[in-house]
């Protein structure tokens, strides 16, 4: 009934008029579940899953892209504590997880074109902030949900939404205790969790189309034939991405799903091959392989972002892709690729916490290991302010203690914010899409903060 009324004629004005009554009606159902749980359980236990499916389908039909005037009420329903708990906690065998992930994907897809183009009016800014709060609730109460569905969420979130993506990628199982990434001489490859593959509720192999390309990809990964595959693949992807534009999503220039699926599929195949030999991923075991040929051939910003999306909590994917980024940095034939790798990692660290554990591990290894010669590159010295970000924020050059504030606290446990986090405000929250390091804007923000502090000291009661 709600869906039929809400989407009839696809008229936004009608949605606005009926939004309050629809939201109140569906919220009343949530409230009845909360106030009379025993009665609800006795009455609906036999068809509880059907009721949740009906709720989900109704909300899916009323999603913001179809009925934008209902967006606020829609988000209020989806984020209701009783509804979230019913979908993610009470329903047995996680039957509600896939349904709730579809609703979150609907929300991300609606925001994506506005976030991609950094065009957020005040109403959209409020909706974006509400989305961040929902992700914070899920990160705190249901981290396993974000862990298992991270791929599908990152697939529809624009690359410039760094804070939103960090919230999803920072999730880790509640029964896991993360090792301190700032522990001196931390042996990541010795962690027991590194050999465990994470759960991903997406069949990435099916996303690599057409079948002929998938067949040639598998053939090259096994025996490096046909020999022209690398050159053909690069040309094919460029042509395919331009021809397969998603016209229903304004602002979308490329098919990011294909790129993300290709990166994750090749990585999963490489991990399986390395484990079959009784080895673990490392700089030596991943080198000179067909899988690394593909990554080196596609080493540009969007593909590097797809790799960085797998740097999460300790697991086999995090370990492999961390080694992959470090190997690409070490073997890069131009400094431009090394600068892009640094950009992909750094722009995810200069926003406010949380920061994914795998991201911290990779960046710390990059700047502390002398073999990468990080401090000798020109892009680090292009401006004194940029170099100070590395030296003061990260804690110095190779051989010195690391002081970057990560997803927990600094190495001494004080929890005091570093200069970098004092200077770089939450860019994505205030200006979505502005998460890339920009020299002038950084200096302007620092100067503005200093002026505000001086005014507060002069006029403490104003």
TrEMBL record:
It comes from the Eukaryota. One of its GO terms (cellular component) is CCR4-NOT core complex. Pfam families: Not1. GO terms for biological process: negative regulation of translation; nuclear-transcribed mRNA catabolic process, deadenylation-dependent decay. Gene3D superfamilies: 1.25.40.790, 1.25.40.800. Residues 43-391 form the CCR4-Not complex component Not1 C-terminal domain. GO terms for molecular function: molecular adaptor activity. PANTHER family: CCR4-NOT TRANSCRIPTION COMPLEX, CCR4-NOT TRANSCRIPTION COMPLEX SUBUNIT 1. This is CCR4-NOT transcription complex subunit 1. The gene is Cnot1.
